[in-house]
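Let's practice the habit of predicting before peeking. Look at the sequence and jot down your guess about where helices and strands might fall. Then scroll down.
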Amino acid sequence: MKTNNCELNDNLSLTEKIKELRDRSLDRKKRVPDSQNDKPVAFWIKKDRLLNEVGKEFTIILRTRGCKWALSKTGGCSMCGYVQDASFEKVEPKDLIKQFDYAFYNKIEEIERDEANYIVKIFNSGSFFDENEIPEEVKMHVYETVNTVKKIKEFVVESRVEYTDVNKLNEAKNSLKDKYIEIGIGIETVNDYIRNHYINKGVSFQDFQNAVQTCKGIGIGIKAYLLFKPPFLTEIAAIEDCIRSIKTLIDLKINSISVNPVNVQKGTLTEYLWHQNKYRPPWFYSLMKCFKKALNEEDLKCTRILCDPSGAGTIRGIHNCLKRECNEDMINALEKFVLSQNLRYIRDLDTNCECYSIYLIQRDYC
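Done guessing? Here is the structure:
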């Protein structure tokens, strides 16, 4: 596997560099006023792929004290800047409930009027099952509220593997009896070296497999997040790594795989490398090649493939050249593929833009 042979140009280890960059960024960040702790970071409704149909997602991002891993002495993951949305201090349970209620009751009438079925995603830029982020009473309030809405068919939260405790998962399962529950876990790659040396995840593939078995034993689904083109990988290496990861996860009968192309977030090691011209976000051409080589129609009958890139078509996100029409063609094809789970939208995609020849030259070494 080819790597992008760039160095940090200082005497710090990768972990130390990640922590230094995180601390520097957080020192510049303004503290979130207590008065804002009763409002979520964001919430929205948009079209999405449910397990067996096209429906809509209702996403709520809660503001918590932040991901424990990101705030630890490890510095967190090399590409993740979501800690910027955190409060860094404990947010009271009553305020977290207010955040959820503010979003939920702002949209509930729209949901009830809609003909579509819904998937609700509760994100907190960390782990939903970490008591330091989401206390017990907040989780129970979320469960009880979501459970009252019949149009909500699926319920998705995220967690690091160390918080996938049997008791917490059983509590979710028993509280949401009529909903399909899926836990999103950032495995990023099936390659332990890439995950822990380039991404600084602090998780082994065996840890992930143990969490999968725990969830399967309770009847809870798994959504595995893969990172497309981590730092230090070339385009070709990123394609190879993602193909291997997708195929491995399909063999494990993972319910959903969400492929996330890197977008360059503030205060991260990835941004540091990007500013030094030592990292380029992935090309759409690489992502499409990965899907074409990794998937077939039979796979898509058993595993849902998701991909909704942040910053797509911009200089910090996945892009080809910066011509609007070139990137829009890719974004539209990707959206149609995800909603339909039909590979023809990717297979039929043209590569007529002149930037394709540039991509073919660069993909081996950057």
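How did you do? The longest helix spans residues 93-113.
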